[in-house]
Design a protein that fits this description.
Oligomer: single chain
Largest sheet: 7 strands, mixed
Number of domains: 2
Strand content: 5-15%
Radius of gyration: 25 Å
CATH topology of the largest domain: Aminopeptidase
CATH class of the largest domain: Alpha Beta
Structural class: alpha/beta
CATH architecture of the largest domain: 3-Layer(aba) Sandwich
Distance between the termini: 47 Å
Shape: globular
Strand order of the largest sheet: 7-6-8-5-3-4-9
Helix content: 25-40%
Number of strands: 9
Amino acid sequence: MSDAPITPGFQAKAAPIMTQLMRALPMSDEDAAAALGSFGTETGGFVYREEVGGSGGYGWAMWTGSRRDDFEIWCHAHGYDPFNGEDEEYDTACREFFVYEVTETWEERVLTEGGTINGVFYPPLKACETLDQKTESFWRLYERPGTPHEDWRRDMAREALRLYRGGTPAEDKPMPYDRIVISSGHSLHCRGAAGVLDEVDEARRVVEHLADELISRGVDVVTFHDDTSKDQSTNLSTICAAHNAQTRDLDVSVHFNAYVETEKAMGCEVLYVTQEALAGELSAAIASCGFIDRGAKYRDDLYVLNNTEMPCVLLEVCFCDSEADADVYGEQFDAICSALADVLGGEKEATTEPPPIEIPEGETPPPVRPPIERPPLRRLLGRVDIEVSGPVRVIVNRVPVQ
């Protein structure tokens, strides 16, 4: 392991910055981690704002020379003062200038077509197969540093990805999760689609049963249903406020699709902005129960996906106006929730019967005691301070309450 400056500041900032970048740009979590590997290296773990030694670099990317001039001119034109000592304004200015560079200037090549450096072609981030390759393409095409510190950039990119994925090893998929918030779509008074199935009623049913399945796998779960909102705008902001009030690794929103009433099978899909791999896993899990797999669908126009502060996926369990889908859903309800929980929380361990007790010949076996009825291992997680209306179910595994 190198002596990369993985500071408390870097650990605090990495995941939020990655989330913001993925909302603003066509970047995966690995793409954003590659950028954080360089930003973290350039700033000594977000400790320094200006290049050590006074050689002129400033900001997340230590923009130098004409790029620093461009940075200052752009900030002035857009009303930012990154030199006033305020952390929030500095970070916002750096982020927005980076977005500007990679969308409206020559630097966009790091996201689009790639480029050739010293006779070697480096592909755009989306075309790189591994995190290390993405990290190298980023620093060579975008940073172009005098002192590469390649090992630092790789280690910090891995750490950023680990932090973003909720502390799982960087080489793993972003699953399973330790703590998840799950909400049902729409509200009692601002209802969704209805056909053979009612979206609001069935989404709530899925949320609660999925929560139970996750709890049995050791996952801490918070569930939320909006019982009060009477218009779509209030409903969407209420749901996002409930999610953002919690500490969690992942947000899940449960919906049912609709098109036209039909007898034909229509299928399942999972919508995402940043979580393509997870969305694909979840859609395949639902489909394994008998649905057509419509797969992972990128959607950047949905309020919940854009306004929850942690990684989020939106499940479209099936089409509520398809008789074929409704039949499969009714028959396979438990299997659907179990398959989703296998992806999010890990598959259940198989239970094995204890070996039989051998009683010596001539002795009387002990009497069999009836099983003791015990309440489930759940409790409310203290006081939930959320400025929203409607019930919030907070369930934490492993803590029994009588």
